[in-house]
Amino acid sequence: MDIYAICPTSENGTIVCLSIECKKIGEKKLWAIIPRRKYPTIKEYYPFLTWSKEAGIEYFTRLILPDLNYKRSDDFECGIAHKAFIEKNDVDDDNNNKSFDQHSIYKALRQANEPINALISDPHYYIFNKIHSDPRKVLFLPIVVTTARLALYKFNTEDVDIKTGEVDITKAQMEDKKWIHYEFPLPTTYRVGTKATPRSEKRPTFIVKAEHFSEFLDNFIKNTSDYLTIDTEY
Fold this sequence. Notes:
This protein has 234 residues and is of the alpha+beta class.
């Protein structure tokens, strides 16, 4: 984690705690995110992690963010895999459209999620004391901010090479995105829960292009302040 930020949504509302991992990489790098084949119903989403003094660890599923273009459940991309490419340039060389360091994306996602356990284990020290606030509900949000081009990577299953499991990038459809919702598969040691709240196997994580991070953050806080200030059972 490079940055952790604490953002109250209102004077007495939910606190949004951000764990931010920043990745500056060279030009012509593409992070291509593969979404789920079938969009899930709202009950099938991996939920957002929250904490409160009264309930402890809980999971919040009904998080709709209209100003980020998530106006309904099937607007979330639900990224489940990724590819990294060196994009084609003006020089005809062997590196054009080649994949590179696939682990770099996973590593960034893991680093954004890693600190959550520590933050939720002692919210008084890490959160409330920092902003001189009484305990109240906290929403934890891991974010990866990158300078790479960001796109959804869509392809037909018929184009998958049965020997290598790869798809020729020229046959794929790339949809450029400012940010993408990703379902990060949590290592066992990163999973948190209680007897009443089973541990989630994945955690919603956003990947955001650096140039659009301010826009993403402003709209996220704006939308969450509209309905996270009321204690409601879900």
